[in-house]
Amino acid sequence: MEQRNLGPFGPVSALTLGGGGIGHLWGKTTREECLATVKAAVDGGITLLDMAPRYGDGEAESVIGEAFGGRLPAGVRVTTKCLLGGTPPAEIEARLRSSIATSLKLMKLEKIDLFFLHSNVAPDDHPMRGHPDAAVRVTPYSVFCEHVRPLFETFVAEGLIGAWGLTGIGQPDAIIRLLGESPAPAAVQAISNPIDSPGALKFYDGPTRQRDVIATAKANGVGVLGIKAVQAGALSAEIDRPLPDDHPEMLDYKRAGRWRTLAAEIGEDPADLAHRYALTMDGVDTVVLGVKNRRELAMCLAAEARGPLDADLVRRIDESFD
């Protein structure tokens, strides 16, 4: 598999195995199939495993621990995250340390290679801080700067984590600002699909500006993990789990009718095309997969092996959503 440089984090495979699928977020699967999928991903050349406690309430991290017994294969590294939300500043350090300790125990590891803030960062006075889920999902910019970022740097110095990163689906002005500050994150997770859509994870009005997030990251030497390449199934041939008609993923699925028509015209599976589009996006270093079984993994590995899309096809894809 192609190797790319994830900013200061160094070389990683073009595809990263995400924990959402093996954490049972994207449809039914089994523990046995998840274990086999993780091992097949590494055998297929994937060198980065992107986990989080919220992927199945620790299920994804537990799969990593069982699959490798605390001894990751040579060259394989792991990420995990912590969703702080509006945790009071006095409780942040304990919350972060507890989260890291639990993740290490589940994965049977001694160090996290790359640790992400899973929260959406927003300006202190931004309306998204009034969202019903803000207490769980939104961290104020000032709290991040004054409390979270210094702790991340402390954890690096202690050897508890190798590097830290941001989830880039927060309010774009705040994310872009943080990417230009020092110390900068080693990596950012950014939406990488042709409609720049985070779906149900968008908590603010206005454009996502994900292309600007990616460009700012590259300008400042920050690695970019492309996420939501198939937008939680909206860019697939069909969504494989029941959702209400007004769900953001269903609305994006309806928007993507011309996308599926174009995929059929060129003989591509829509999900494969979405992964190849993300791999072709300028500035994306590695694309995080949400697969839940070996069949889906094999399709993604085959799509990556076919290489990037040509400029004319990228143009036609972009025009299908205009």
UniProtKB/TrEMBL annotation:
Question: Which InterPro entries does the entry mention?
Answer: AKR2_Oxidoreductase (IPR053135), NAD(P)_OxRdtase_dom_sf (IPR036812), NADP_OxRdtase_dom (IPR023210)
What's the short name of a Pfam family annotated to this entry?
Aldo_ket_red
Coiled coil segments of this chain: none
Alphabetized Gene3D superfamilies for the sequence: NADP-dependent oxidoreductase domain
Residue span(s) of domain NADP-dependent oxidoreductase: 15-319
User: What is the top-level taxon of the source organism?
Assistant: Bacteria
Q: What is this protein called?
A: Predicted oxidoreductase
